[in-house]
Amino acid sequence: VFILAIESSCDDTAAAVLQNDKVLSNVVARQSIHEEYGGVVPELASRAHQQNIVPVIDVALKKANITKDQLSAIAFTQGPGLMGSLLVGSSFAKSLSMALNIPLIAVNHMHAHILAHFIDEEGFDKPTFPFLALTISGGHTQIVKVNDFFNMEIIGETTDDAVGEAFDKTAKILGLPYPGGPLIDQFAKEGNPKKYSFTKPKIAGLDFSFSGLKTQILYFIQKNVAENPNFIEENKADICASVQQIIIDILMDKLRLAVAETGITQIAIGGGVSANSGIRTTLKNAEGKYGWKTFIPKFEYTTDNAAMIGIVGYQKFLHDKFVDQSTVSKARIEF
Ligand code: ATP
Ligand code: FE
């Protein structure tokens, strides 16, 4: 089975070709245009998708050494995401499936961030059902009980900001370019995570809240900069390390609670923020510390990519879960 997968939910145009559960090619065109605006501008994103989609798909097919007529199905991201961006991917997928007369498969982007763990990769184990997934990305923060490929329930999620926003907004406060998450990660490596302490939000159960932390960080920086204008420059690494640490502590508290409540000790992380090296190390160490089995995705399957759409596409193909041309893109989508 050869699946062509297309992902265009936000600001990255991505295409991948999978042969069953193996990735033959995984191509991403990042849109740098948003950097100067400090965030994703939807109109510019959809325009850039229109420019990128044909070349990105061409490169994905070439790298996979596959021609269009060998394809078994086309999978695309149906949502959640920016409507204008989603429409570029879905329209293209629909036309191609019609032209080639092959099935069309709609994929939920958040399911894909989780199911990326089922891509066949040397050195990476696959979780067995049921397992817990911590999805941490630019727009979401969820703990999901994954019972099967097509049966999962959200047991905890953020009530306001996503973890990725906490990283990106902190970066903005520090004067770093968008998206700042990876930069915080870099600076944190050189810093002392115990230098500054922040308080955890008081939110019961498995839900999260990050907007209070963002305000706390803002006031902390403003106060210190008022006393010393060079505060940020002089302490950047320690600030980044301390912020990253409080975020990790919050995530780990909730994961421990989720394990206690469900009795499930297999934990998989996914989403762009799962690229964070501090989070990856902490999760790895949790295996020895708590007796969990943790699953950390290959780096290229953390931030948005089409390979993760392709693996869901492959599973749906096996189960005849196809859609027709009348399928609509959804900015918000039922889980
Ligand atoms: P969603 O998946 O919720 O729709 P999205 O697709 O925009 O959102 P992803 O591409 O999955 O988001 O993740 C992007 C986020 O990941 C950004 O907030 C970015 O800063 C963050 N991120 C990426 N790498 C790192 C890192 N190393 N450390 C911390 N955050 C990171
Ligand atoms: Fe994403």
UniProtKB/TrEMBL annotation:
InterPro entries given in the database record: ATPase_NBD (IPR043129), Gcp-like_dom (IPR000905), KAE1/TsaD (IPR017861), Peptidase_M22_CS (IPR017860), TsaD (IPR022450)
Single GO MF descriptor: tRNA N(6)-L-threonylcarbamoyladenine synthase activity
Family matches, as SUPFAM superfamilies: Actin-like ATPase domain
Gcp-like domain location: 22-310
Alphabetic keyword roster: Acyltransferase, Cytoplasm, Iron, Metal-binding, Transferase, tRNA processing
Keyword Cytoplasm on entry: yes
Cofactor note: Binds 1 Fe(2+) ion per subunit.
Protein name: tRNA N6-adenosine threonylcarbamoyltransferase
Name of the gene this protein is made from: tsaD
